[in-house]
Each structure stands twice: as structure tokens, then as C-alpha cells.
Design brief:
Distance between the termini: 21 Å
Strand order of the largest sheet: 3-8-5-9-10
Order of helices and strands: HEHEHEEHEEEEEEEHHHHE
Helix content: 25-40%
Radius of gyration: 18 Å
Number of helices: 8
Strand content: 15-25%
Structural class: alpha/beta
Shape: globular
Largest sheet: 5 strands, mixed
């Protein structure tokens, strides 16, 4: 879904050679689910430059519904894109533009395993990055004691024709990949199934809140989770932690309730690095 160009090029290039078609879903009015402006034109220009093999299919629509629950509008747009993509193949990837595969070979090997297990979706782990604190250095979300934690925003691939429940989530049988034989995601039960294990450096990297300050402030206004991001202290904490990463990491075990648990991690650049300049239309 085209909304933020910050990591769009790195995300597309990571899997471009491994898929048949890429559906580009965007709001034709250039507005977000909450009615704020989006740099759709810039996103389209990036995608068209990458698309040398003419794999991209542009599927515009009207998804901005100011006053409605942003997550409901997000689900409508995701379903619209999934329905369009379902005519092109057996499986549909559900990667956002700030999610970058570190190993396409590992991802698609996992997808083949999910297909062989007759699963309805692939729950593939992402490493959730909070902020960039230096060259190749990030605050990465972990468990309370700094151990590597997988993040699952929803299955990153589902079978064609799947009906979504909320955002990327769907009531389907999942083939679940993790970093250890036992679940590493603090938001899942300790006994959650793990079907296969991969190294963390072959996962997906989610540059979730890794943005320049002005862009992160805009993201807080257009995200499907805007209500959670709206309080001013959310941005102030992000800014403070960006400036004080070592103190942030040291305090991690003390945050039992907030789950604001981080470690300092080194991520190769590219695909990371400083995101591109985002051009918002007036």
C-alpha cells in the first residue's frame, strides 16, 4: 500500500525478482485513512522506476473515511488490494513498504513449507525497529531481558482469496516461523506453535518508527494506530530515547508494564540507513 516512500525502494527490490505481480494500492485522492495528505505521487514515481519488468499493477481507490475507525479503513484497503492480487497467483504477500526482507531465499523457502503444510498463511518474523541512533545502529524491540524477539503484525503471506479480519490478520491456519524453537514474541503465549526456525539476520526488518522527526510526526497522524500515537508524550519519549539510546537500553528490565523493551542492534545498510526525503503535496 503506497503511503510512505521512506523505505519503499529497499522493500520492493528485496522481493521484486521473486514474484509474478505487485499490486500498488493507493488512495486516488492522496489522503490517508484519517484524512491527512500522503506523498502518493512520490511513491508511484519510485515504484515505476523500479518496475523494469512491468510487474506492477496500479489499483487506486478511495479509502479515506474521516471520522471512521482508521483500522477499519485500513482493513478495507488491504482487502481491496488482496482481492486484486488474488487473480495473479496462489499466494499473496502482505508486506508493507517499510518492511524489508533480509533474505528472499529464506522467506520463499518458508512459504513453500507453508504451502506443503496446507497452511492458510505464513507467520514470518519481523525485527521491529524503534529508532535510528547512528550509522547502522538502531533500537530494536526485544523481550524484557534484551533477548531477540520476533514481531508478527499478521501473516506476511496468505492464500489467494483470503478474507481479512483486521488489518493483515485473518482466521486461517498459520505456518509459524520464529528465531527459536519456543516462541520469542512477548505478545504471544509462551506455548505458541513454532513450525520452523530461522536466523534473525534472515528475517524481515520492520523500520516501523525509523523516520526523520517531521515524518514521524506525520505518521502519527495518518497511521491506523493513530489513537495510540496521538498523546504528545509518545513523540517526546521517541525523541528522548533517540538521543539517549544507552540509557533506554539500561532501563529496559524496569519497564515491566509498558513493554518498551529495546536493545542496540547493528543492521546492514542498505537496506536501512537514513530514509529518503519525503515530499508531501500541498
Amino acid at each position: 500500500m503506497l503511503a510512505d516512500p521512506s523505505y519503499l525502494e529497499a522493500s520492493l527490490r528485496a522481493y521484486y525478482g521473486s514474484v509474478e505481480r505487485i499490486v500498488l494500492s493507493y488512495d486516488e485522492t492522496g489522503t490517508s485513512w484519517t484524512g491527512t495528505p500522503l506523498p502518493v505521487r512520490q511513491c508511484l514515481e519510485i515504484a515505476r522506476t523500479i518496475d523494469v519488468d512491468r510487474k506492477c499493477v496500479e489499483v487506486p481507490g478511495r479509502f479515506a473515511r474521516p471520522g471512521a475507525d482508521p483500522l477499519e479503513s485500513e482493513t478495507i484497503q488491504r482487502q481491496h488490494a488482496l482481492d486484486a492480487a488474488s487473480s495473479f497467483g496462489k499466494w499473496v504477500l502482505q508486506l508493507d513498504t517499510d518492511e524489508v526482507m533480509l533474505s528472499a531465499d529464506t522467506f520463499f523457502a518458508s512459504l513453500r513449507a507453508a504451502d506443503g503444510a496446507d497452511a492458510g498463511g505464513l507467520d514470518f518474523p519481523a525485527r521491529w525497529l524503534y529508532t535510528r541512533v547512528g550509522t547502522r545502529r538502531y533500537l530494536e524491540q526485544t523481550d524484557r531481558f534484551w533477548r531477540r524477539a520476533a514481531s508478527y503484525p499478521g501473516p506476511l503471506a496468505v492464500r489467494a482469496g483470503t478474507r481479512l479480519k483486521l488489518a493483515r490478520q485473518a482466521d486461517v491456519q498459520l505456518f509459524r516461523v520464529d528465531f527459536r524453537r519456543t516462541n520469542t514474541d512477548p505478545w504471544h503465549p509462551a506455548d505458541a506453535q513454532v513450525d520452523t526456525v530461522i536466523p534473525a539476520d534472515e528475517s524481515v526488518v520492520h523500520f516501523s518508527w525509523v523516520r526523520q522527526p517531521e515524518v514521524i510526526r506525520r505518521k502519527f497522524r495518518w497511521s491506523g494506530h493513530t489513537e495510540d500515537m496521538k498523546p504528545p508524550q509518545v513523540y517526546r519519549r521517541w525523541e528522548w530515547r533517540t538521543r539517549h539510546p544507552r540509557v533506554t537500553v539500561a532501563l529496559t528490565p524496569l519497564r515491566a508494564r509498558s513493554r518498551a523493551w529495546y536493545r542496540l542492534s547493528t543492521i546492514p545498510e542498505p537496506p536501512g540507513g537514513v530514509p529518503i526525503h519525503v515530499e508531501y503535496e500541498p
